[in-house]
Amino acid sequence: MHRMRIPILLFSTLLLLAGCPSEPSAAPESAASQVSAALAARFHGTDISQDPIGGDFTLTSHNGRSVSLSDFRGKVVVLVFGYTHCPDVCPTHLLTYAQAIAQLPPEQAAAVQLLFVSVDPARDRPELLARYVPAFNPSFIGLTSADGGEAETQAVMKLYGATAAKQPPQPNGFYSVDHSSATFLINRQGRTVVMEPFGQTATQLAEDLKTLLNQQP
Question: Which of 10, 102, 143, 217 is the most buried (most CB within 10 A)?
Fold first, then answer.
């Protein structure tokens, strides 16, 4: 009689355990959190690959030609918003990215394209951009609106959540433009993946560029 009770009790216990799914359900959430953290740790900047930021656009280059973001599919694109009369943030961005790209092997450096989108198209006409932007690196391209109006460049800014506000002019007519300082890294497929805050070092930017360049096209 005692020999029959042990299997019956054991079988009943197994049935009770099988009917308690509450504990295993927590595991997928924990695993998802770990994956998300691992993805975020890939970059020094902020991973925004899951956010609705970015998109294709067409502007006028410092050579006077129409240029689209999609022209650079297959390359990693650095997108910088700024203006030529900027006293500090913009030249710092361009100089730091030039230093970052110089840290890459030649074949990887050739696969990076920086685009400088003017937030001050009225003053930043192609001829001025041509003197300013390539001075930091001959491969850098300055972009502005075709007619000097703000509609085209503001449409691009809206795609990337960038902002700019023209300040009242001084007595001599000079004015500054307050603008957001984040830059964006766009992968070979044209997807915006990383937002870099102002103040990143050249080494940090170079490492993030390498991460994107090493991904499969």
Answer: 143
Taking the whole predicted model, whether its pTM rises above 0.90 is answered as no
Burial of 190 (0-12, 13-18, 19+ CB in 10 A): middle
- Mean of per-residue pLDDT scores for the chain: 87
Enumerate residues 6+ apart whose C-beta is below 8 A from 142.
61, 62, 116, 118, 124, 126, 129, 130, 132, 133, 134
Predicted confidence (pLDDT) per residue in 93-139, tens digit: 999 999 999 999 999 999 999 999 999 999 999 999 999 999 999 99
First to last CA, the chain: 71
**pLDDT tens figures, 142-153:** 999 999 999 999
Tell me: the pLDDT tens digits for 12-51?
A: 433 333 343 344 444 454 554 444 445 555 899 999 999 9
Q: What is the dihedral of CA 125, 127, 132, 136, to 10 degrees?
A: 120
Q: Is the dihedral of CA 42, 110, 62, 100 positive or negative?
A: positive
* pLDDT reported for residue 40: 54
